[in-house]
Amino acid sequence: MLTLVTPEMATITFAKPFSPEESRRILDQLQQPLVFLNMTCDWPALSWTAQHLSDRLGDKRLRFRLGRKKDTHEPLFESQCSYVEATLAEFLCWTVGHTPTENGPFSNYPQSDYWAYADYKYIAMLFQDQPSMFEDVKWSDFGFEGRGGRESTLWIGTEGANTPCHLDSYGCNLVLQVQGRKRWHLFPPEDTAYLYPTRIPYEESSVFSQVNVLHPDLTRLPDFSHARVHIVTLQPGQVLFVPRHWWHYVESVDPITVSVNSWIELDCDDRARVSEAVTRTLVCAIKAAPSDDNTDVWLNPTEKEVLSHDENMQYVNLAVRAWTERQICHKEPVHNSKADSPPKRDSRGQTRTNKKPNPATFSIPYGPCLIPVRCQHEGETRIIPEEDGSLRDFLVTSQEPCTGTTSTSESKHEHRPVLNQSKSHDSTDRTLEDNKGAGHPTITTNDLLDCLLHPDVISCVTDLLLQRNCK
């Protein structure tokens, strides 16, 4: 129970729908996106509007990512954006069409043509001189004791600000929406091949999609038509759970949005770290080599530097050693790619099993305070305001599992390609000058990397490497 005292000293008591233990059990049990309601009513972070944060940060400058407001079939990767350093006060002036000086940080970027995003801002660094701010975020309400603002990131953007579609290599995400609304397009791990994964640009914790999910080019990327999208528009005060390896594209839909994100490891990711170490070693070795078609900006701005081959191999050895020690400790068998493949799930996202259900099995308590983000047909999971100004959830979707153009999840895999060989990168990478008119498409460095670093291939390499190390 939560007790609040008003200025008039009247006591109002609220009961949160789930205890920390119940919330954690829900997150551990289910591998489908969920929206929690009425869990953050006492969080001071709900007052973190852009103006409030501007007042707290003062003259501290943040790095803003800017992109053009235009519709194209290509995703806008972070390596293709512009960047400026500015205070939140300068940012807020720019959002309403004002610039403090002619030479201000946003002076070359008309607000009518650009969106801006202060993303990935670590709260621990922003407010290192104001540690009381860390207590404003209370992930302990979701069963993560001791976790708060110090372990979270801040995201502040304008309408249209977005992150390209990607999946996170490790862990899951809990996202609190504070100001404005954000629309999330999510895709299950089983649809990875339909998202045309790529590691260029390279970021250790992310695998990017070559698809612009809002304006896909189905002529060039036809398998995306089989992907199953789950859409939700997140409102202030609501918390979204994004399970491990779910693809997501996120876009701000209001003039100013503020959200708080916490990345969480629910289980050990030693094997994933081996895969990532292998990937980074291959990317750096190949992209750092001089070549006529290695002229693109391949390192994501979130990555600070290109590591040497020796440094990358040290990471490979450390990751394999950590995995081996854990296997010895727990006496667990070597994983393989089939065992690591996502399990089949029902329409509620729960694991399908041939065993008879146990009456004592935990049942996910869906209801007005726990909303599943379902697969979309023609509708959308959205929040509709009532006449009295309150918010209520409506699921404008079919309640049956969505399977795209096929009738079952098993049959849809018939369309899945083993490897993606589409040409998705910049035209300078697709065709070498010396081979024009040769009559055959040129295989570029990025084409080769897309195949070498495909998740299925990296999974097989990781299996072989771990099996070899165990002998």
From TrEMBL:
<feature type="region of interest" description="Disordered">
    <location>
        <begin position="331"/>
        <end position="363"/>
    </location>
</feature>
<dbReference type="GO" id="GO:0005737">
    <property type="term" value="C:cytoplasm"/>
</dbReference>
<keyword id="KW-0963">Cytoplasm</keyword>
<comment type="function">
    <text>May play a role in cellular stress response.</text>
</comment>
<dbReference type="InterPro" id="IPR003347">
    <property type="entry name" value="JmjC_dom"/>
</dbReference>
<feature type="region of interest" description="Disordered">
    <location>
        <begin position="400"/>
        <end position="440"/>
    </location>
</feature>
<dbReference type="InterPro" id="IPR041667">
    <property type="entry name" value="Cupin_8"/>
</dbReference>
<feature type="domain" description="JmjC">
    <location>
        <begin position="109"/>
        <end position="279"/>
    </location>
</feature>
<protein>
    <recommendedName>
        <fullName>JmjC domain-containing protein</fullName>
    </recommendedName>
</protein>
<feature type="compositionally biased region" description="Polar residues">
    <location>
        <begin position="400"/>
        <end position="409"/>
    </location>
</feature>
<dbReference type="Pfam" id="PF13621">
    <property type="entry name" value="Cupin_8"/>
</dbReference>
<feature type="compositionally biased region" description="Basic and acidic residues">
    <location>
        <begin position="331"/>
        <end position="349"/>
    </location>
</feature>
<feature type="compositionally biased region" description="Basic and acidic residues">
    <location>
        <begin position="410"/>
        <end position="437"/>
    </location>
</feature>
